[in-house]
Amino acid sequence: MKRRILTLATAAFALVANAQKVDFEEYGLNNGMHVILHQDKSAPVVTVGVMYHVGAKDEADGKTGMAHFYEHLLFTGTKNIGRGEWNKIEAANGGAGNANTNWDRTYYYETFPSNNLELALWMESERLLHPIIDQKAVDTQNEVVKEEKRQRMDNAPYGKIIYGDVYRHIFDKHNYGRPMIGYIEDLDAAKLSEFKAFYDKWYMPNNAVLVVAGDFESKAAKKMIKDYFGPIPKRTLPKREKIVEPERTQEKRVKEYDSNIQLPAILLAHKTPSMKERDAVVLSVISTVLSNGKSSRLFKKLVDDKKKALQVFSFARELEDYSVYNIGAIPLGKTSLEDLIKEMDEEIEKLQTELISDRDLQKVRNKFENNYVASNASVQGIANSLARNYMLVGDTNRINKELEIINSITKEEIRDVAKKYLAKNRRVVIEYLPKKK
Question: Which of 153, 174, 261, 326 is the most buried (most CB within 10 A)?
Fold first, then answer.
């Protein structure tokens, strides 16, 4: 009977995957810029996004923070958009925009009523062709970045875990070990010429993907894209240095201090495969089994039943070269961190030696289905997914394969991946402790 139920659920899952299929068209401009178009006329809005293949990992020693800095700097204005006018133009035309950075890429996007597609394309082409990069802009944004660091990392409880500052304990060679926001002393010491050099090195059409998603006419959009982006000259991309991070063969233990917390935490941190690899998806499944929701194994055991933890968590941060997978808990009462490690290890060992149940496997699939639908519920979300899959995964159509991949993951794969990547000799154990002010 269980086999029959699982078969019917799998069939229903496949129907949902087909119903959610994202149609798109992609092509290249003569200057090397890749273009992806996704039409959706269900609402009169359109998103224009440009993703540049540059992030914190591409920064030179002693010049960190540049990638994230440009996320802010390129909203200053351009030759044809006055200083401080960018957001005003968006608001006056019913639109909004933003940007975000990680270790691998920087992404800018605008969402407007569909009759303002040309405005959005012009603004993004201006950002690439005529940005304001002068000392006044640099000084202003330097203060903005410092305030962001204070709020998100320096003054945020457990901020070093959330924003990846603890990755320096995981990576000994790779630049993922640097904080994504960079080191403030590097930004303070940087000269204007160095800021300009970073832009010239990475910001070019042949290092970018342009996505237009929403309500538009294909022929008209293609003409506007050609008019605004086609004339921008391509340049020679620098050769990317591939940094190989050695495999860890012995457990590493470190302590990290945070003056914003009163309760300690324990973190089991692991270097895991690139987001391009199937095993990275399997680890996301493992994360869901362990700690996603109140019925997850760690939550039920440590929070509900034994009341040894105030909170448990595990999450995978998927990146282009390698990924990071963390499992953690905050103790309750007199529970020691070592006791939490022992309890977490018991659940990890179960995953490494026993097959999960049909029910648990289907529950995971349901959660991924919900997440997939939510992430693609807007043209803004679809634009981001299309750009990311093209640039970092190397397969734009991965957006239509996600549920299929999840649905094909077997119980045996879950066991084998847990055994391989969550082995004790591969991990870093981080005691995350309160620091006296």
Answer: 326
Q: Which helix (H) or strand (E) holds 369?
A: helix 358-375
Torsion angle of C-alpha atoms 390, 392, 395, 396, degrees rounded to 10: -30
3-state helix, strand, coil in the chain (%, to 5): 50, 20, 30
The structure tokens listed for 75 are 């909203």
Q: What is the DSSP letter of 410?
A: -
Judged by phi (left if over 0) then psi (alpha if -120 to 50, else beta), residue 70 lies in: alpha
CA distances from 2 to 23, 405, 412, 414 (A): 35, 22, 18, 20
Residues 57, 64, 427, 305: is their CA dihedral positive or negative? negative
Asked if residue 213 lies in contact with residue 383, where contact means CB atoms within 8 angstroms, the answer is yes
CATH of 252-434, one of 3.30.830.10, 3.30.565.10, 3.50.50.60, 3.40.630.30: 3.30.830.10
- Cα distances from 409 to residues 93, 279, 339, in angstroms, run 46, 10, 32
Give the Cα separation of 76 and 281 in Å (integer).
38
Cβ-based neighbours of 18, under 8 Å, separated by 6 or more: none
Helix ranges (DSSP H) in 20-115: 66-73, 86-92
Residue spans of the domains in the chain: they are 22-229, 252-434
Q: Tell me the pTM.
A: 0.93
pLDDT tens by residue, 127-150: 999 999 999 999 999 999 989 888
CA distance 150 to 309: 28
Q: Which residue has the tokens 């394309």?
A: 121
Kindly report, residue by residue over 318-375, the tens digit of the pLDDT: 999 999 999 999 999 999 999 999 999 999 999 999 999 999 999 999 999 999 999 8
At how many degrees (to 10) do helices 2-19 and 358-375 cross?
Answer: 10
Q: Of 202, 201, 179, 182, which is closest to residue 190 (Cα–Cα)?
A: 182
**Is 372 within 8 Å of 299 (Cβ atoms)?**
no
Decide whether 22-229 matches 252-434 in CATH topology: yes
Show Cβ contacts of residue 145 under 8 Å, excluding neighbours closer than 6 positions. 65, 68, 69, 72, 181, 184, 187
Q: Which residues contact 321 (CB under 8 A, 6 or more apart)?
A: 57, 104, 174, 176, 242, 243, 245, 274
